[in-house]
Each structure stands twice: as structure tokens, then as C-alpha cells.
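Input record (one chain):
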Amino acid sequence: MRDLFARYAVMMDRVSVFIGHGCSVLFFACIIASALEVVMRYGFDSPTTWSTELSMTLCATAWVLAVGYVTERQRHISITMLEILVGERVWHIFRLVQLLASAIAIAVLARAVWGPALKVLARPEYSGTAMNSMQPSYLKVLLLVGCVLYLLQLAANIIRWFQGTEKETAGGH
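The corresponding structure, as predicted from the sequence alone:
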């Protein structure tokens, strides 16, 4: 059983890294869309109706989907001074508390977005902007997907914690 959990953790790490690297392309696409908007608006006095909404959607997608990658790498914002003050042993316990608190918080968030996500699948919502995209519907479903990916990666990190194979943190421990 221990081997099964270890294989799950490795597989989930790979999925998170793959998605995280893929999300970098979305940030690059956002830069291109924003640069094009600047050229169109100030160079040709003909602003687009879609670039702001597209940029927001691309960045939101990358941010939400990359959460597993950030969690796998343990690159969340951390109070490193506290880590130094309490020492490795206590910090290790704090790390488990943080993982469990994160899992509970994200499970509550997933439960909260479940209904709205299902609702927009049945009846899509539109942005009401000049582009009038389905951005609100897309983002509600995306948030639920991001919650699931985050929970799956948290589970992998918790497995690593209990097996004593947790990766080094950003602070160096």
C-alpha cells in the first residue's frame, strides 16, 4: 500500500509540473495580447474589444491551474523567519498543519463553487462586455478544476510528509 501511495505522489507531481509548465505559455500569450492592444490603441487609434478580457482570462487560467505546480515545488509565500526560529523539527510539524489546513480550506472552496459551476454548465453566463464572452462561465468551472488539482497535489504532499520523503522547502530545509 505504501508503494501505491508513493507512486500516486510521483504521478501527481508529474501532472502538476506538466500543467505548470504549460501555463507559462498562457502568460506569454497574455503579454502578446497586451502588446498588441497597446500598438492598436496608441499606434493606430483603434483599440480592440477583446484584448483586456482575453488577457484576464489567460492570466486567471494560468494562475488557477498552476496551483498544483506551486504546491508541488513548495513555493507558496512562507514566513521564513518563523521557520528559522522554530527549527526543523517544529517546522516539520507546522508543515503538516499547513497542508491539512490548506486541504480543508480548498475542500470548503470547492464545495462553495460546485453549485455555481454546475449551474453555468446548464445555463452559460456571459460577460456583458463588448466581446460578450462566456468568461464568467468558464472561470467558475475553471476554479472548480483548480480546486481539484490543488487537493490532489496536497494529498501527494501529505503522503510524502507521512512517508518522510517530503521535498526540500524554498527556505532550504
